[in-house]
Write a structure and sequence with these properties.
97 residues, alpha+beta, 5-stranded antiparallel beta sheet, 1 helix, 8 strands
């Protein structure tokens, strides 16, 4: 099964949210409740942009609506192959949102 992730630059709404987010990272590892975990994405409020203190971590299943899908090319396919391999060997758990 091929994992589906949106490309960087995609703009989305999370479930029950009223503010748009732009995806700026995929597969971030971060600390939550004293434990290292990862999520599918890290996003920032659109159109304000990056504020490291306001980064929002979320998973693909938390997306309610895609407003804009970011740029994709052949590198995206290769990235997904590498990502799937990385994720299968990862020793931290995926956080449930």
């Amino acid at each position: 099964m091929t994992k589906e992730l949106l490309p960087l630059g995609s703009v989305i709404y999370l479930e029950e949210a009223t503010t748009k987010l732009m995806i700026v990272g995929r597969g971030p590892i971060f600390e939550s409740d004293g434990e290292n975990v990862y999520s599918d994405y890290v996003g920032v409020i659109y159109p304000e942009g990056i504020n490291p203190e306001d980064a929002i971590f979320f998973n693909h299943e938390n997306i309610e609506k895609v407003v804009f899908e970011g740029y994709k090319d052949d590198e995206e396919k290769r990235f997904m192959e590498v990502y799937e391999s990385w994720e299968s060997e990862l020793e931290v758990i995926k956080i449930k949102m």
